Amino acid sequence: MAAASFSFVHLLSPNPIATVRSSLTKPPTTSPIPFPQSKPKPGASLSSSPNTTVRAVATSGNKKQTKSPRNVPSSPAPIERAEALDLYEDMVLGRCFEDMCAQMYYRGKMFGFVHLYNGQEAVSSAFIRPLARSDSVVSTYRDHVHALSKGVPAREVMAELFGKSTGCCRGQGGSMHMFSAEHGLLGGFAFIGEGIPVAAGAAFSSKYRREVLGDESCRDVTLAFFGDGTCNNGQFFECLNMAALWKLPIVFVVENNLWAIGMSHLRATSDPEIWKKGPAFGMPGVHVDGMDVLKVREVAQEAIGRARRGEGPTLVECETYRFRGHSLADPDELRNPDEKAHYAARDPIKAFKKYILENNLATESELKAIEKKIDDVVEEAVEFADASPPPPRSQLLENVFADPKGFGIGPDGKYRCEDPKFTQGTAQV
Ligand SMILES: Cc1ncc(C[n+]2csc(CCOP(=O)(O)OP(=O)(O)O)c2C)c(N)n1
Ligand SMILES: [Mg+2]
């Protein structure tokens, strides 16, 4: 893994996919609008407002790097040990949790569609871990790992997947609809693009609180995650326009995994370089290697900082890859084995582990201890989910009707669905 230096990367190389892409697309004629702080000054560190938990860390240009407490790295590490281990742990949690989801799905413990995130962990960890609790994240149906990175406990995410009452939505949301107001997770969304206006609304409310209601302490930022396929959807364009027009504190994070179910991004999109749509709306557009957690982190810091300082939105295209099929029901027979092998060799977790070891940020046994800890967390999550009760039948009608009287609740005040005849369709409702 290269040391993170801030740069606008247009195309990854050497990369067979990028070669295909560059032969299909004209070279960029416009330069992306640079971030105000795109050239880190020696000794500069990111400023953090009093309301944030953004950690100030040395940038790659900082020669007075804080060294690992135990070792002197051969080259300056642009990340401190504690943050590196936090990112590593979060990525391992995402991977391990999802591998367990696959097992549980095939054992019949989960219902409906389940879309896994394996391979894309660097994006979730690098963007979400630095956020404050009061910041918001809006996800898609590929939402479990975003929920974990935002701090929703693994046992609550697993219980939600099992449809149990102890899940973060009391078993009512399931895989595609993770939500936790407490953790600022404003939802997974099954319809593509549906979350983007919700994210724009959340960002608008932060700005409104600060500038209209005079809440000076409100510096909240919203991250909207979505895929490459979603960028051809109208809501994406409408929200880019509004966000730029009103300088909303939002970052649009495109997880370009090159596929929308079985549709190749290159076949579906007139100009596959998604980042270019940012400058078209007057906001910075950045392409970053989404398999390199340090590069994503650097771009994330800039974009989040920009939003927090009130300087407006950023569009970030993270080039990443999903290691599994579109969902667990997809046999994944369409994608070229060479393409899969190319990205498998760039596994972001393995690459970051190598980086940590090479830069003496931790020892092999310390990383093993983290992996063991995460195994235990995931095991415990499964036991908790399995042992939890299902939601009561009366919950079926919650959140369906504003006033369920006359629909689900009879004149006696009891839920009709508690009547065994209800499911047989013979209850007198
Ligand atoms: C409005 C809408 N249209 C179509 C679909 C069907 N659909 C489900 S996933 C998907 C592809 C989305 O691809 P992408 O945005 O790249 O996300 P990824 O699955 O790669 O993470 C489509 C078209 C949908 N869910 N919602
Ligand atoms: Mg995609």
UniProtKB/TrEMBL annotation:
<feature type="domain" description="Dehydrogenase E1 component">
    <location>
        <begin position="90"/>
        <end position="391"/>
    </location>
</feature>
<feature type="compositionally biased region" description="Pro residues">
    <location>
        <begin position="29"/>
        <end position="39"/>
    </location>
</feature>
<dbReference type="InterPro" id="IPR017597">
    <property type="entry name" value="Pyrv_DH_E1_asu_subgrp-y"/>
</dbReference>
<dbReference type="GO" id="GO:0006086">
    <property type="term" value="P:pyruvate decarboxylation to acetyl-CoA"/>
</dbReference>
<dbReference type="InterPro" id="IPR029061">
    <property type="entry name" value="THDP-binding"/>
</dbReference>
<dbReference type="Pfam" id="PF00676">
    <property type="entry name" value="E1_dh"/>
</dbReference>
<comment type="subunit">
    <text>Tetramer of 2 alpha and 2 beta subunits.</text>
</comment>
<dbReference type="InterPro" id="IPR050642">
    <property type="entry name" value="PDH_E1_Alpha_Subunit"/>
</dbReference>
<dbReference type="GO" id="GO:0004739">
    <property type="term" value="F:pyruvate dehydrogenase (acetyl-transferring) activity"/>
</dbReference>
<keyword id="KW-0670">Pyruvate</keyword>
<feature type="region of interest" description="Disordered">
    <location>
        <begin position="22"/>
        <end position="78"/>
    </location>
</feature>
<protein>
    <recommendedName>
        <fullName>Pyruvate dehydrogenase E1 component subunit alpha</fullName>
        <ecNumber>1.2.4.1</ecNumber>
    </recommendedName>
</protein>
<feature type="compositionally biased region" description="Polar residues">
    <location>
        <begin position="45"/>
        <end position="74"/>
    </location>
</feature>
<dbReference type="InterPro" id="IPR001017">
    <property type="entry name" value="DH_E1"/>
</dbReference>
<keyword id="KW-0786">Thiamine pyrophosphate</keyword>
<comment type="function">
    <text>The pyruvate dehydrogenase complex catalyzes the overall conversion of pyruvate to acetyl-CoA and CO(2). It contains multiple copies of three enzymatic components: pyruvate dehydrogenase (E1), dihydrolipoamide acetyltransferase (E2) and lipoamide dehydrogenase (E3).</text>
</comment>
<keyword id="KW-0560">Oxidoreductase</keyword>
